[in-house]
Amino acid sequence: MLSRHDRVLERFGNIAIGSGGAARLHVAGDDVTPRGDFRVAWIDRHSRFGEFFGLDYPTPRAALRAWREGRIGGPSLRAIVRAFQHGRLPPQDTALGGDIGIHGLGEDSPAVQRHVNWTDGCIALSNRQLRRLARWVHVGTRVMIR
Fold it and tell me: Are 91 and 77 in contact (CB under 8 A)?
């Protein structure tokens, strides 16, 4: 759902998420879509998926949770927090992974969306849905994954 000032602008059905479902924490290689509040940190308009709206994952909140659970060490936690404090993209190569975003199907068949969650942790829309969404998205756009 796309909203602005509590007004629904668009609803997108038949999306795909990570093949591992959605959870509070994504770890590299688990194919889980992380839940939480994010910002669009970068946009790749020439992605193999058509466009890619990269999110600022992992967030300090996710990193602190992972550190408390023993999934990452202090240096990774500090690097993620420091990146946010300085307005930079957090490290994408910690045990929490990265390159999480919203994208289209590119050249893949739209049929895949109807049958399975297939991403490595991203949110996939149809190419048509992504073009509609792209009108509203810019670096800094807030994204809530519930």
Answer: no
Q: What are phi and psi of 83, to 5 degrees?
A: -60, -45
Average pLDDT over residues 23-44: 95
User: What global pTM score does this model have?
Assistant: 0.91
pLDDT at 108: 67
| Residue 105 to residue 51: CA distance in whole angstroms | 9
**Measured distance CA(22)–CA(85) in Å, rounded:** 27
Domain that holds residue 36: 2-57+96-145
Question: Interior CA angle at 33 toward 94 and 132, to 5°?
Answer: 120
Query: Domain count of the chain?
Result: 1
Are 53 and 39 a contacting pair, CB within 8 Å?
Answer: no
